[in-house]
Design a protein that fits this description.
By secondary structure, the protein is mainly beta. Helix content is about 5%, strand content about 40%. The chain has a three-stranded antiparallel β-sheet, with no helix packed on it. Strands 26-27-28 form a three-stranded antiparallel β-sheet, with no helix packed on it. One of its GO terms (molecular function) is calcium ion binding.
């Protein structure tokens, strides 16, 4: 007898609402309809999948219970069908940055800003590993180390230039030039020479000790003669006290709002005179209210298996760090320049690592160990390169050294 064909009675079924009668041999059962759970043998009640967690809504979606079912709706700031929700950023994430939360771009290493439009200046923030004999030179997205004035590149090191031997010093002919590391000093004989003068020879003229003068080709620089040694510095610019129309302030164009430049795409982003940024795989620089762009110079790769440049990349890059430090911007935001210096973290393969062992991405069988208070620097001669100087529109050749920091380890023992 098929009890499911009849409701109630001796030969019928007694399945109530929210159930479905299923005939079996000699009897029947009451199955719960989808979205309902069993209350007893003949009754089923509505099931709240949202409360029970028995749903497949995305973590950034709200679960809304309905009669016998549910539906998913992406939270504010996200878009999708509820089962797959992606964040929405009103701004464009540039330079490989990704929108990973509403209106927040997660920037790649070397970039900062609301839209990842600004270069992170590793030199100014102290996030570099240049030796004492080198200067840090910031580049859009990276940096390199070059020998300081008074040093020159020989092999892998920066060695002192003997200004006295080369006769490139500023000592008066009556004084004696004494070479020092990276510089020189002028001395008069110990026994005394009434004709000896500790004045400076500068641009074919003599400056008395303590005189100050600006070079003929750089009127904004100020050079001082100190006991025969001439030293020149750029004037400090205090934009908080800057006043338009003052002649002395012409040497500080970065303080003049009229000398700034607007980003090509982000209308709310402006750059001061002298600042650089990257746009459509070009390096752009603002100079006196106008900007010029040229082909982006890619940083040297420090890994063995670089990834090809993707749609959002301008240059090939190394695989993301698997130790959780792929995004340097997050580390910088939560730490001061001193906190990420030598002794607290290690820089290896363009990544910052905390003290302790870590896996180097391009060497699967190598375990490196970052030792507290230890980091080693190694300078590798890179290449001579040609670069259009935006201001003079001339070609300049610069020789520089690329920094390659490494943690000491022996691969042959792994």
């Amino acid at each position: 007898v098929d009890e499911c064909t009849q409701q109630g009675g001796l030969n019928g079924n007694h399945c109530h609402l929210n159930t479905r009668c299923v005939n079996t041999f000699g009897s029947y059962i009451c199955e719960c309809l989808p979205g309902y759970r069993r209350q007893d043998k003949f009754n089923c009640v509505e099931m709240d999948e949202c409360k029970s967690g028995d749903h497949n809504c995305h973590e950034n979606a709200d679960c809304i219970n309905t009669l016998g079912s549910y539906h998913c709706q992406c939270k504010e700031g996200y878009t999708g069908n509820g089962r797959d929700c992606k964040p929405v950023c009103n701004q464009t994430c540039l330079n490989g940055g990704e929108c990973r939360s509403p209106n927040v771009c997660t920037c790649r290493t070397g970039y900062i800003g609301e839209s990842c439009e600004k270069d992170l200046d590793e030199c100014a923030t102290g996030l570099h590993r240049c030796k004492d004999t080198t200067d840090c030179v910031n580049m859009p997205g990276w940096y390199f180390c070059k020998c300081k004035a008074g040093f020159e590149t020989k092999g892998k090191e920066c060695v002192d230039i003997d200004e006295c031997y080369l006769n490139t010093h500023s000592c008066h002919p009556t004084a004696r030039c004494v070479n020092t590391p990276g510089h020189f000093r002028c001395e008069c004989p110990v026994e005394g020479d009434p004709d000896c003068r500790l004045s400076c020879m500068f641009e074919d003229r003599e400056l008395r000790d303590g005189d100050k003068v600006s070079p003929s080709n750089a009127p904004c620089k100020l050079c001082t003669c100190s006991k025969g040694v001439i030293s020149c510095v750029e004037p400090p610019c205090n934009c908080s006290s800057w006043r338009p129309g003052v002649v002395s302030e012409l040497c500080c164009p970065q303080c003049d709002p009229k000398q700034s430049c607007q980003h090509q795409e982000l209308q709310h982003v402006t750059f001061r005179s002298g600042e650089q940024w990257i746009y459509q795989c070009q390096t752009c620089e603002c100079l006196y209210g106008e900007f010029d762009c040229w082909k982006l110079e890619c940083p040297p790769l420090t890994c063995d298996n670089p990834m090809p440049a993707g749609p959002a990349d301008c240059c090939p890059r190394c695989p993301d760090d698997r130790c959780g430090f792929a995004n340097l911007t997050k580390l910088i935001a939560s730490s001061s320049a001193e906190d990420v210096g030598v002794g607290t973290t290690c820089l290896y393969g363009n990544h910052v690592y905390p003290p302790g062992p870590f896996k180097y991405p391009s060497r699967e069988c190598t375990t490196c160990s970052c030792k507290v208070s230890f980091v080693a620097s190694h300078y590798v001669p890179y290449y001579y390169y040609m670069h259009l100087v935006a201001l003079q529109k001339t070609t300049a050749i610069r020789t520089f050294l690329i920094l390659s920091c490494f943690i000491q380890f022996r691969e042959d023992q792994v």
